[in-house]
Write a structure and sequence with these properties.
The protein has helices spanning 16-26, 52-61, 82-92, 118-126, and strands spanning 2-11, 31-38, 42-49, 65-77, 97-105, 108-115, 129-134, 137-142. It has 144 residues and is α+β, with helices and mostly antiparallel strands. It folds into two domains: 2-69, VC0802-like, CATH 3.30.2130.10; 70-142, VC0802-like, CATH 3.30.2130. Strands 1, 2, 3, 4, 5, 6, 7 and 8 form an eight-stranded mixed beta sheet that branches. 24% of the residues are buried.
Length: 144
């Protein structure tokens, strides 16, 4: 249910994301999920990767600013209303979400959540889930 997310600070210029993907790919690091946010001066590429320590070393060596942030990874059924159920549970327990992003794989949707209180978020979601481990990511599989 907990995993580590990389936040990479990049210039707003053509090729910045390509360079990160090239560096990681050439060294066997898989980008499993990503989200891009930007402002006028720079962008923040948030990623879940297959090897956090290696990715951090590689990107810092290439002079990228990198932070590692703990986040929640939730796996739900890929069907209407599943995300709403997760968000309702969190809201009912006053868990504030700073940001989130999601991706789907077949019958499952994967949601990355950055709450202000990760421990509380995990506790709330664990009450409705069974723990599982898949592809190196800890996750919760919700039963509906």
């Amino acid at each position: 249910m907990r995993t580590k997310q990389l936040s990479v600070f990049i210039e707003n210029k053509t090729g910045s994301i390509r360079e990160i993907a090239r560096i990681l790919g050439a060294n066997g690091v898989n980008m499993r999920a990503l989200s891009m946010a930007e402002n006028s001066d720079f962008g923040i590429l948030r990623m879940i990767v297959s090897d956090v320590a290696l990715a951090v070393r590689l990107l810092k060596r290439a002079h990228f600013g990198v932070n590692v942030t703990p986040v929640a990874h939730v796996r739900t059924p890929n069907e209407p209303g599943a995300l709403a159920s997760v968000l309702e549970k969190l809201a009912d327990h006053n868990v504030f979400i700073e940001y989130m992003y999601a991706f789907s794989e077949g019958d499952c949707a994967n949601v990355i959540i950055r709450p202000t209180d990760l421990d509380r978020c995990v506790d709330v979601l664990s009450g409705e889930s069974s723990s599982a481990k898949s592809d190196g990511l800890e996750e919760a599989i919700f039963r509906y």
